[in-house]
Design goal:
Number of strands: 13
Strand order of the largest sheet: 6-5-4-3-2-1-13-12-11-10-9-8-7
Number of helices: 4
CATH topology: outer membrane lipoprotein receptor (LolB), chain A
Number of domains: 1
Largest sheet: 13 strands, antiparallel
Distance between the termini: 16 Å
Structural class: alpha+beta
Shape: globular
Helix content: 10-25%
Length: 258
């Protein structure tokens, strides 16, 4: 479990075990059919019947490969792998380049805790954090990314009408906290935007819930499931600070459901 094709032994043993556990979450019985979502808000039905062909297994986890840019002072290129199994957890393991040198590490959420660990050249600590604020922020990320990349797990969320036309709200119970995300769906059923009030400290002024969002630029079918394949994300979404808050741009190159 690495980001660049190197040996899985480069990852901590505990992280490899957690990756395997998340990738093997048991699937609920049955397969997707439009009648299963008849009671959901209309935009959610429109999205799910667009994203999922009848007969699609209700996969509870997904593994992703991606590449893109992340803003660490300046924009830096990265490659990454991720496993995602809402509401149970995720691991995002990546390699970025800073001054030509590799920074490798991971963000994760699982078993009620969040963690970040990043090292220069695999040796020099850059970021190491595991505390209640990291956990709450990671839980919000899990909810938002679950909405983006795992439509087959729609049944694990509670659904409600959204605050605007063409929106629906999915609420995930992640351990003992509810995390809600608003999805904007276009007339053809494509997911175009995800918004949430995510726990974080984007301006260094103290932790709290702040506007966070994801803009989906293109989508693509992987294994019969249509998901976002190019996106942008950041803080202060929907405000005049959105441009300054954007810090993540990614292209999804491979998706495996399980």
């Amino acid at each position: 479990m690495t980001t660049d094709g190197s040996s899985a032994s480069a990852a901590p043993r505990s992280l490899r075990a957690e990756w395997a556990r998340l990738a093997a979450v048991p699937a609920p019985p049955g397969r997707f059919s439009p009648d299963l979502v008849a009671g959901l808000p209309e935009p959610a039905r429109r999205w799910l019947t667009h994203a999922l062909a009848p007969g699609t297994p209700l996969w509870p986890s997904v593994r992703l490969r991606m590449r893109g840019e992340i803003k660490i002072g300046a924009w830096r290129s990265f490659t990454a792998r991720q496993v995602l199994a809402p509401p149970h957890g995720f691991i995002w393991a990546a390699t970025a380049r800073v001054a030509g040198l590799p920074v490798t590490g991971f963000d994760r959420y699982g078993s009620g805790t969040g963690q970040m660990r990043w090292r220069l050249l695999g040796l020099v600590p850059v970021v190491t954090a595991a505390n209640p604020d990291v956990t709450r922020s990671a839980a919000g990320r899990l909810a938002g990314e679950g909405a983006c990349w795992l439509p087959t797990a729609y049944g694990a969320a509670r659904w409600a009408d959204g605050p605007e036309p063409d929106t629906a709200v999915a609420t995930w119970r992640i351990d003992d906290v509810d995390e809600s995300v608003s999805l904007r769906i276009d007339r053809d059923g494509a997911l175009r935007e995800v918004r949430l009030q995510r726990w974080g400290n984007p301006d260094g002024q103290g932790f709290g819930r702040h506007p966070f969002g994801v803009a989906i630029e293109t989508e693509r079918a992987f294994g019969g499931v249509t998901v976002p394949s190019a996106l942008r994300a950041g803080w202060w979404w929907g405000t005049d600070r959105q441009g300054a808050g954007e810090f993540f741009r990614a292209e999804i190159t491979d998706v495996t459901f399980g």
